[in-house]
UniProtKB/TrEMBL annotation:
Gene Ontology biological-process entries: cellular response to heat
Location of the ATPase AAA-type core domain: 245-296
Protein name as catalogued: ClpC protein
GO molecular-function term, one example from the UniProt record: ATP hydrolysis activity
UniProt KW keywords: ATP-binding, Nucleotide-binding
UniProt cross-references to Gene3D superfamilies, sorted A to Z: 1.10.8.60, P-loop containing nucleotide triphosphate hydrolases (3.40.50.300)
Domain ClpA/ClpB AAA lid: 89-163
């Protein structure tokens, strides 16, 4: 890498307006150093950056920035940090549109518009551990392979449909074939009935949870918050319920210690949790999660700290079963 940087600097002196872009910039630290020459790639860059002779954009992840890049103070102060936010599903569709013709030529297919929008929205929903637009691009690529595989074997182009996108997601996540299409086809009435079959005698709570999930389905919830933050309260011994997917359950939230409340507020307000450890700073994503708080206090939301109660999307009183 060191020789490549030196070569670029020589060409840069002969060509105005050049900008050096370095991906995986944390690899600069230590790159090119040998026993006979301890100077690494970062050391080669520093003088040119300090004198303003070089324009450079470096890209890395936040975790790798703190783990590697920020440890070289001399290199760090020569850059201005710009945090690039993950695009929304709607913004990702624009990215996929820009890549559309490339993948159509490469795979010999044609993407339907609804297939691209599904690739963005469904990858956001079913692959929460990964980031947009990367995960949507992977789903787009895989769905094109599946569509081509069901073609007639001639030179005619096949269309990539929503069904192909669903199949690609099922294959990626490890879901039963057809399960994504089934879930997305369910109406709010189907969901409410399914919950009632598992949760007896708690009609208000079932309706509250079903409505929250329905809002998320049609993307009416705030994009940077959890699907919903709900309080279920009632006397001790009243049965509650748990969902099988995407739930954070905080039992007796009214008794939570102050240090825990700060973490919970971050989750409810920003749908993320900042985690610090030996490997640097990371974030847990809660955008596809229903946060359920429970309490045995009959005062319901009034029993919670004001900051917590203000962030609730709804609450319901759990009743004794007759």
């Amino acid at each position: 890498m060191g020789s490549s940087l030196s070569s670029f600097q020589q060409r840069k002196s002969q060509q105005e307006g050049s900008i050096l872009f370095i991906d995986e910039a944390h690899t600069l630290i230590g790159a090119g150093a040998t026993g006979s020459s301890p100077q690494n790639a970062a050391d080669i860059l520093k003088p040119a950056l300090a004198r303003g002779q070089l324009q450079c954009i470096a890209a890395t992840t936040m975790e790798e920035y703190f783990q590697y890049f920020s440890r070289d103070a001399a290199l760090e102060r020569r850059f201005e940090v710009v945090e690039v936010e993950e695009p929304t599903a709607e913004e990702t569709v624009v990215v996929l549109e820009g890549l559309r013709h490339h993948y159509e030529r490469y795979h010999g297919v044609q993407f339907r518009d609804d297939a691209l929008s599904s690739a963005a929205s469904w990858s956001e929903r079913y692959l929460p551990e990964r980031k947009l637009p990367d995960k949507a691009i992977d789903v787009m690529d895989r769905s094109a392979v599946l569509a081509k595989g069901r073609g007639e074997g001639d030179d005619s182009k096949v269309s990539v449909t929503v069904a192909d996108v669903a199949a690609a997601l099922e294959e990626t996540v490890g879901l039963r074939p057809g399960s994504v299409s089934e879930v997305e086809a369910r109406s709010i009435l189907d969901l409410e009935e399914a919950l009632r079959a598992r949760v007896r005698g708690q009609r208000a709570a079932v309706r509250l949870v079903a409505a929250a999930v329905a809002r998320a389905r049609v993307q009416l919830q705030e994009l940077r918050r959890p699907i919903a933050s709900l309080l279920l309260y009632g006397p001790p011994g009243v049965p509650g319920f748990a969902q099988c997917y995407g739930e954070v359950l905080i039992d007796e939230a009214d008794k939570a210690p102050p240090e825990f409340l700060g973490l919970l507020l971050e989750v409810m307000e920003e749908a993320s949790l900042t985690l610090s450890g030996a490997d640097g700073v990371g974030r847990a994503d809660f955008r596809h999660t229903v946060v359920i708080l429970t309490s045995n206090d009959p005062a319901g939301p009034s029993s919670l700290p004001r900051a917590l109660a203000d962030r609730l999307d709804g609450y319901a009183c759990m009743r004794y079963l007759s």
